[in-house]
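Final report, Chapter 2: Outcomes

The project's central promise was a pipeline that accepts a single protein chain and returns its three-dimensional structure in a standardized token representation, suitable for archiving and comparison. That pipeline is now operational. To close this chapter, we reproduce one record exactly as it appears in the project archive, with the input sequence first and the structure output second.
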Amino acid sequence: MVGIINADSHSLEPKRHRCDKQKTVLIGSVQHFLVDALCLCSLYLLAERAGNMDVVRVFILYNVLAFTTQPLTGWWTDRLRHRHWVLLASMVLLTVAVVLAAITVKYGEEGNVSLFLFYADAFLLGMGNSCFHVWGGKQVAVMTNNDIRAMGTFVSTGAFGLAVGTLLFSWPFLFILLISFCVLTVFCIRLDNGNNTPEEELPHPFYFNMVSLWVAAIMLLVAFRSWASEGFTVNIIKNPFLVLLLGAVSMLGKMMGGWIAHWIGISKAIGLFLIAALTCFLLKGNGIALVLLGMFSINCTMPITLYWASILLKGKEGLAFGLLAASLIPGYLLATLLGIG
């Protein structure tokens, strides 16, 4: 009887573990959509009341904080045995940001929203966004043993969240996003109970070596991809439908990139994606279909670069995710400021 019970428990354990992994990826992907939509929704609601205030700098502050601080928050996440503290920090920061935005609008005059409070809200949103992204990237990488399909699925939903938050911003929608994120955060922490990092598996200090050079090369590739991605659309007049379409195509590309790489192999996949993206970039003036195909192809490479970085920085997946996120900013600024396209 004891042997039968033990056999049954062993047969059920892998299935239970697979179920936990699927829940982690699903919940994390939904949270990613919610966080990015929430941040843009909050900023646009404040910008709507800002009048003639120069809000471009506020959006730049948000983006710089959200992306360039991720190596730091990723390093912090890697050092913690209980990673859920990073997720809780994200929830608190985003909640305070939404409350602050509501207070700013309620008590501020039309067209005369406090610039200081606007910057403070951007700071809270950026840091909350940063904490969530590295937590989610680390969590998915560890729970799925760097499964490239899971990593692609997790990173994909943020692109569509940005598009939705930009177009559908409203106060009821903002609070729905926040409440949904908080509920999923509580559920996720309960699901993560017991999945702590043993002391002996905490990452060792980072030293400069050949791995560093490979990671730097991947970061350059990510910066180039960011530039190319912006270059596809920098001179296109974007109506609401096109904004949603571009967000959906970017999401689909990031999601499918991991699956295609799993099916045909990473080497073949990266070659296929880059050739397709380059061809579409050179011919993008011949129609929106080529722009969309190019956006899809270039985004397919995202889970591959994330997978490479996570493998190279084993045990430092938070740092790996943060470094690649920070690499997006130079390419974005280059394409935006120079108007490449």
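Archive annotation: Residues 13 and 105 are 51 Å apart (CA to CA).
This record, like all others produced under the grant, will remain available to the consortium after the project formally closes.
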